[in-house]
Specification:
Blueprint (H helix, E strand, L loop, with lengths): L1 E9 L3 E4 L17 E3 H5 L8 E4 L4 E10 L3 E7 L1 E3 L4 E3 L3 E3 L5 E2 L8 H5 L5 E11 L8 E8 L4 E6 L2 E5 L9 E8 L10 E9 L1
Parallel strand pairs: 2-6, 3-9
Antiparallel strand pairs: 1-16, 4-5, 5-16, 6-15, 7-8, 10-11, 11-12, 11-15, 12-13, 13-14
Length: about 200
């Protein structure tokens, strides 16, 4: 028998899981960097996509959907995994627009939730990316930041600041992104996510 439980919890950021890179590559494929669309990663929160979780006692399935959108949406792209021996980095490039991503399809289908969100579209405000290997002390971080007054993009690395063309942003290995809600007025309150868990009983 399968039991279903629905829980609602606040969140500070949303974690996106990258697909695993290919284990084996031939000579033609070894220089090809895998790519995935941001919207494919966000499907984790469409309320229908299932993800397996396992503990030492049971195996269960979770589905996620967002019940309240924040003024600023933080996306954490899970690039690093740790096994018993070392930390691995996933080099997959995430393809995304820098304006007008609509989160409406990832909101709960509940009528009250839909009615409470007249604005669901976001623009990218900041993009943090990681360059280099995963080992401690070897990789570097860069930040792409949009100046809201001029809409000009800048790249920041240590004390260096340079202007950046918007089309260059999507070429980097995005790690953390901050998106700003396009709205007429500020939105107050906590951000919430609903989790549906199915497990054998």
């Amino acid at each position: 028998m399968i039991a279903e439980e629905v829980t609602e919890s606040p969140f500070l950021y949303v974690t996106l899981d990258l697909p695993p890179p290919p284990l084996y590559q031939d000579e033609l494929e070894k220089n090809i960097i895998p790519q995935v669309a941001l919207f494919d990663l966000l499907k984790k929160f469409d309320g229908m996509t299932e993800k397996d979780y396992k503990t030492h006692r049971e195996l269960f399935i979770k589905r996620f959907e967002i019940t309240k959108l924040p003024p600023y949406l933080i996306l954490f792209i899970k690039r690093f995994t740790k096994n018993n021996f070392y930390i691995e980095k996933n080099p997959t490039i995430v393809n995304f627009p820098i304006q007008d991503i609509d989160m409406a399809e990832f909101l709960s289908s509940d009528t009250a939730v839909q009615d409470a969100h007249p604005h669901t579209t976001y623009d990218l405000l900041a993009n943090i990316c990681h360059d280099g290997p995963a080992e401690a002390g070897k990789g570097t971080y860069r930040v792409h930041l949009r100046h809201k007054g001029t809409n000009q993009w800048f790249e920041l690395q240590d004390l260096h600041v340079t202007e950046l063309l918007p089309q260059m942003i999507t070429l980097a290995e995005a790690y953390v992104q901050i998106w700003e809600l396009k709205r007429d007025s500020d939105v107050d309150g906590a951000n919430n996510m609903s989790t549906t868990t199915e497990h054998d009983s």
